[in-house]
Design goal:
With 371 residues, the chain is an alpha/beta fold. The protein folds into two domains: 186 residues, Response regulator (Rossmann fold); 171 residues, Rossmann fold (3-Layer(aba) Sandwich). The chain is 42% helix and 17% strand. A seven-stranded mixed sheet has the order 2-1-3-4-5-11-10, with helices on both faces. Strand 10 and strand 11 form a beta hairpin.
Length: 371
């Protein structure tokens, strides 16, 4: 495990036992709510609501890591899990179902941050605390953990600018910006950070906010951008995550753009790591999901007992509520960093990365799976 990521995970793990054994009431915890508090020794149900499965991370990392972390902190606890498949109305119905089943606490990764305020309000009415996970929900949320999303965008923008500048004047052509979903507050922060790095340095020829983080819609947007830009060369593509990057790259290849300009990404999806090694995608953002999952589990177990979680700082959500929050650091990954981050941390087995189609790319990056 790399030193940076090891430090993040150790710190998050250190918070977990402190939180579940702490005294005192968490800021924003429900007062005299309808839920009957139960101890870790007795165990209780933890509700987990994730937003979608188009992005590979949710099923591959977030769900199993959160379930594992809850069990580590409370062996008698159970996790009741539902995925909204990018439907805010469905997520509200799922929350109602979990509340009816008597969950003691909700871990909520909102489809739509504003709409999720109704979930938080209903939970509060029943005395059930809510931990906002990865995306900041509206309403009286009890705790929030995410990565430093503005920093994510800055790292993406800086990496893109470096790559463009390596080929000459960064204004020699235009870039295309493919941002995330307009209903995801994280997407706005990614965009904020990217613009901070890119504005005044490059020419933005086309910009698009992608509904539902859909790779298909990203591909269509880039196709439109290429048509609009005509003979203007595309020197780079800012794609807010790896799924959008896949759509952008498909559009570029479909239009015969060669060589491909540098394309950013986020989430360190397996396919993105393979594209980076092959040279189709320039970089991704690796988020140590174990740290986020462990922190969310610690926050949830603490909140379920009316206890505070350490090391937080207040952040104000869209409804004006101040919420105890933790922002975790991220790691930018290019071809040169795959071995020291993704491989070193065991995110994917080397044999899974270096399939026959990518064996040559792995060898060029000095990554060779054992026979």
């Amino acid at each position: 495990m790399s030193r940076t990521v090891r430090t993040i995970v150790v710190l998050a793990a250190a918070f977990l036992p402190w939180a579940v054994g702490a005294c005192g009431k968490a800021p924003g915890a429900n007062e005299g709510g309808g839920a009957t508090r139960r101890s870790l020794a007795e165990g209780f149900a933890v509700g987990l609501l994730l937003p979608e499965s188009k992005t590979a991370r949710y099923e591959a990392f977030d769900r199993p890591l959160i379930e594992k972390s809850v069990r580590a902190g409370c062996p008698r606890c159970t996790v009741l899990y539902l995925n909204a498949q990018q439907d805010a109305g469905k997520q509200l119905a799922q929350a109602d179902s979990l509340l009816t089943q008597g969950v003691q606490v909700l871990i909520l990764d909102a489809v739509d941050a504003k709409a999720a305020g109704a979930i938080v309000a209903r939970a509060e009415e029943q005395g059930v605390p809510v931990v906002a996970y990865d995306r900041f929900a509206a309403g009286p949320v009890d705790a929030f953990v995410t990565f430093d999303n503005v920093k994510v965008g800055e790292e993406q923008g800086k990496a893109l600018l470096r790559a463009i500048s390596a080929g000459g004047d960064p204004r020699r052509g235009a870039i295309i910006m493919v941002n995330g979903s307009p209903t995801d507050p994280n997407a706005a922060e990614f965009k904020q950070g990217a613009h901070a790095a890119l504005d005044g340095q490059v020419t933005i020829g086309f910009e698009f906010d992608t509904p539902d983080w859909s790779p298909d819609k990203a591909q269509q947007a880039v196709e439109q951008a290429l048509t609009k830009l005509g003979s203007t060369p595309v020197v780079g593509v800012y794609a807010a995550n790896d799924g959008l990057a896949s759509g952008a790259i498909a559009a570029l290849k479909g239009h015969g753009v060669e060589p491909l300009p540098p394309v950013t990404g986020q989430d360190a999806e397996l396919a993105a790591i393979q594209r980076i090694l092959a040279g189709d995608q320039h970089m991704t953002i690796y988020k140590p999901y174990a740290a986020e999952a462990e922190t969310a589990a610690g926050m949830a177990l603490a909140a379920a007992q009316g206890q505070a979680y350490p090391g937080t700082a207040p952040r104000t959500n869209s409804s004006g509520h101040q919420v105890p929050s933790l922002l975790l650091p991220v790691v930018a990954v290019t071809r040169d960093d795959v071995a020291s981050t993704i491989v070193a941390d065991g995110i994917y087995p080397l044999a899974e990365i270096c399939t026959p189609a990518f064996l040559g790319a792995c060898q060029r990056a000095q990554l060779t799976p054992r026979p």
